[in-house]
Write a structure and sequence with these properties.
The chain is an all-alpha fold and 147 residues long. It is built from 7 helices and no strands. The chain is globular.
């Protein structure tokens, strides 16, 4: 049937824990500083981490950039804007106005969109288990986010 991958499960649960903890810390921070300040500080931290990572992986990065042209670089910039900058801005705006639990719950519908986009772009098969799982997630989100 399925091989149970402990490393996958443990690392994903750990990532979920860190994500949950980050929402609480960000909300606590937004009570003290403006949304724009937090976004800039976090952006700088991510930028520094990216530079360090880039220095460490310099050779593979240079190879990737040489193998791909300007058109691919433009796609990366557009993808970054659509998948990081816009959602990040909306996330901090919403977190400054609402409770962390509500924001975490409502953003947990991601698997629905991943399922649809994976089907469209990668031709992944949608199984009955996938559909049931997404329906349960949506029901759970509704229970957590709405009174």
């Amino acid at each position: 049937m399925y091989d149970f991958d402990y490393e996958l499960v443990v690392l994903c649960v750990f990532m979920a824990f860190l994500y949950g903890a980050s929402i609480i810390l960000q909300k606590m921070t937004l009570d003290k500083i403006k949304q724009s300040t937090l976004m800039i500080v976090m952006g700088c931290m991510i930028g520094i981490a990216a530079v360090v990572y880039g220095i460490y992986n310099k050779d593979s990065m240079i190879t990737d950039l040489k193998q791909n042209g300007d058109k691919e670089l433009l796609y990366i910039i557009i993808l970054f804007s659509l998948t990081m900058l816009i959602p990040g801005t909306l996330y901090f705006y919403l977190l400054s106005k609402h409770t962390p639990g509500k924001i975490a719950a409502l953003t947990s519908v991601t698997p629905l969109f991943v399922l649809i986009l994976s089907y469209y772009f990668f031709k992944e098969k949608i199984t009955m288990y996938n559909l049931i799982g997404v329906i349960l997630i949506i029901c759970g989100v509704a229970l957590l986010a709405f009174k």
